[in-house]
Design brief:
The chain is mainly alpha-helical. It is 65% helix and 0% strand. Helix 1 crosses helix 5, helix 6 (110-121) packs across helix 8 (137-153) and helix 7 (126-133) packs across helix 8.
């Protein structure tokens, strides 16, 4: 069941984004993605097919088209996100990125960007989003509904921004992903780390790196997340209480994650210019490389903080 959950988690943003590209309706796309998952649970008794993402996307898009035809609203719905789609059932390679940029449009408040990203891109339910935002479920539901309505009313394009808009828009997206990861360390019912949220943030960062390979800051953010997660096993003691960095058992740090985080951080710093996530990842990398608290390169950390 855990493996199936992982399949659905990885497929969710692709299925929602591809269906939204076809229909121009975020609510309909979300509903149809959910129905596709429910059908998969009934149909995959012997295991997932070879291409589960393609299966789910095909089902969701066909369900969406059936609903639109049945309700005779195709002409009214299609213009909302102003992004023409092809006739094929295959998800476009940039569909998830289009969805992320739509959810993180600057016309929306940051809290709405976070809520919409968690719901549509990550598939997090309203109750969990309310816990992240430290607010009530009804308020989160209203916020998500208003954000969707604003996207539709303002006809916000379902697309990756053009090159001249990308730096400012990308920073907003990275900020939301970082906030999702940070929220995973505010505590949860099971401890000081919510690995569900931190894992989703890492998945979003990986997607941005994969779809924007020439941009250094997504690499830096993913490096920062991995370096932070590498220290996770040592961050609490046997009673679940917080252990400060100076007192952590560094033998419990995940060296494989540190290696991947350092590689991404180094690549981002070399490509430049050094953005805020590259600098934060640089600080995390200096801590990760130090054999002990006393042997930390404090001078270089101060220099990085000054930058």
């Amino acid at each position: 069941m855990a493996e199936m959950d992982e399949v659905f988690r990885e497929a969710w943003p692709v299925v929602v984004a591809s269906t939204a590209r076809l229909t121009g309706d975020l609510d309909l796309a979300e509903d149809c993605a959910q129905e596709a998952v429910e059908r998969a649970l009934r149909s995959w008794a012997d295991g997932a097919p070879d291409n589960p993402v393609g299966w789910l996307t095909t089902v969701a898009r066909r369900v969406a088209l059936d609903r639109l035809r049945r309700e005779a609203t195709l002409r009214r719905k299609l213009p909302l996100l102003v992004e023409p789609a092809g006739d094929d059932d295959e998800p476009g390679p940039t569909d998830p990125l289009r969805l992320v940029f739509t959810c993180c449009h600057p016309a929306l408040a940051v809290e709405s960007q976070v809520a919409l990203t968690l719901r549509l891109v990550c598939g997090v339910d309203v109750a969990a989003i309310a816990a992240v935002l430290l607010t009530g479920e009804a308020g989160v539901a209203r916020r998500i509904t208003r954000a969707k309505q604003k996207i539709a009313t303002a006809r916000i394009p379902f697309r990756v921004p053009p090159d001249d808009e990308l730096p400012a828009r990308l920073d907003a997206v990275l900020t939301v992903v970082h906030l999702v990861h940070t929220a995973g360390h505010r505590g949860s019912r099971t401890g000081l780390r919510n690995t569900e949220l931190t894992g989703r943030a890492a998945a979003l960062a990986r997607m941005l790196v994969r779809l924007l390979p020439a941009e250094p800051e997504p690499q830096a953010l993913l490096g920062l997340i991995l370096l932070t997660e590498a220290r996770g096993p040592a961050r609490t003691d046997s009673a679940g209480d917080l252990v400060l960095l100076a007192d952590q058992d560094r033998s419990r740090w995940d060296r494989a994650l540190i290696g991947r985080g350092l590689a991404l951080t180094t690549a981002a710093l070399r490509r430049g210019p050094r953005g805020r996530f590259a600098l934060q990842a640089g600080v995390a990398g200096l801590h990760a490389m130090a054999p002990s608290w006393a042997e930390t390169d404090w001078a270089q950390i101060v220099t990085t903080y000054d930058a």
